[in-house]
Specification:
With 130 residues, the protein is of the alpha+beta class. It has two domains: 2-96, 2-Layer Sandwich (Alpha-Beta Plaits); 100-130. It is 43% helix and 38% strand. The protein has three helices and four strands; from the N terminus they run βαββαβα. 11% of the residues are buried.
């Protein structure tokens, strides 16, 4: 098994339903190639560093998957290139230790929330002492 991560940028003007169709088609393509989606995350709409196809914004999608035969990666690249709604894509081979676990991700979010709350409490206590 080989592990990969892919980040692709989808045209930001797409409605939520069409965006879901595109992400589902990519996920189905990976599964039909004998792969398994391990992690999926929609990073949301972000401003691009530079204009791509006259677009200033794009919706970032991040997936991690494992696949037996890496010859299907070429087909996935072709799929990204032929889809006019996908502005850019990047496929990177990763080690198994780099694969995200959803439980780990949720723990990180909880820790960051706790850190933010403690910082807010410290700021409010500092204002009271002044």
């Amino acid at each position: 098994m080989k592990f990969y991560e892919t980040t692709y940028i989808v045209h930001s003007a797409l409605q939520e339903g069409r965006l879901n169709d595109i992400t589902e088609s990519i996920n189905t393509f990976v599964k039909s190639a004998g792969g398994e989606i391990i992690y999926f995350d929609n990073w949301g709409r972000k401003k691009l560093s530079y204009m791509i196809d006259k677009q200033k914004y794009g919706t970032y999608i991040y997936i991690q998957f494992k696949i037996l035969d890496n010859s299907h990666i070429k087909n996935l690249k072709i799929e990204f290139e032929h889809n006019t709604n996908i502005l850019r894509s990047l496929i990177v081979k990763i080690d198994e230790v780099d694969v995200f676990d959803k439980n780990q991700e949720e723990e990180k979010k909880e820790i960051s929330k706790m850190d933010k709350n403690s910082k807010d409490e410290n700021l409010s206590s500092e204002k009271k002492t002044e």
